[in-house]
Amino acid sequence: MPAHANDLAEVLAEAFRLFSRGVADRRSPFRTPTIATAGPDGAPSARTMVLRGFDPAARRVMLHTDRRAGKLVNLAHTPRVSVHVYDARAALQVRLSALAQVHVDDAVARAAWGAGVPAGRACYAISPAPGTEVPAPPPAPSDTEAGFANFAVLALTFDVLDWLWLDHAGHRRARFAWAADRSLRAAWLVP
Ligand SMILES: Cc1cc2nc3c(=O)[nH]c(=O)nc-3n(C[C@H](O)[C@H](O)[C@H](O)COP(=O)(O)O)c2cc1C
Q1: Which of 131, 132, 116 is nearest to 64 (CA)?
Q2: pLDDT tens digits for 26-66?
Q3: Which residues approach ligand 1 with their CB closer than 6 A?
Q4: Beta strands in the chain (DSSP E)
Q5: What is the pTM of this model?
Q6: Residue of the nearest CA to atom 25 in ligand 1?
Q7: How far apart (Å, rounded) are the C-alpha atoms in residues 90 and 86?
Q8: Cα separation of 176 and 107, whole Å?
Q9: I need a labelling partner for 102 at 20 to 30 A (CA). Which of 66, 75, 140, 191 fits?
Q10: Pairing relation of β-strands 60-66 and 151-165?
């Protein structure tokens, strides 16, 4: 049995370890979480994004995107986000409920842009805007600097972490919820 099987503190430590590893390990399922937002009409939409940063002390997940993307319209209306990761090999699902902050043309965006690779930066120079209907697939952009105006960092601060681990000896579900005063309530839930 892993240490987290019967210990809530170990569950949280393991969840944080997995997110931290996801930033660096391209093969980790935590590298590509599903990010769900709600549209102005309340309709949910979900998409895969790359985990760019994880700060356990701040309970923060960092993502990069194009400010022209549909998800930014959703976030302007409803800044709440659901993050979902499924690790098939570990039979593990982790979900976060988070508040999103969008960084465009500020110190956070500049630092993230500077740390990126040229090929990644070029994506943000695509024209017209992502999601626009076009008669044929557009050529890949090559300008590595013009895209900064379109570059956005999403900083997601989560206040709930839901853990579900399926095991033949007994499934485990745990919920961690942080109050506004940062106090943590941790509990096992019926899986
Ligand atoms: C493996 C993978 C990684 C992706 N990473 C990102 C990402 O880091 N940021 C992003 O904005 N879109 C990323 N996408 C594209 C999104 O899934 C989505 O199609 C796009 O952002 C448009 O979403 P929207 O119209 O809901 O804004 C990725 C797609 C895949 C398949």
Answers
A1: 116
A2: 999 999 999 999 999 999 999 999 999 999 999 999 999 99
A3: 32, 45, 47-50, 63-66, 69-71, 130-131
A4: 34-38, 44-48, 53-55, 60-66, 80-87, 92-104, 151-165, 172-178, 184-189
A5: 0.96
A6: 70
A7: 9
A8: 31
A9: 140
A10: antiparallel
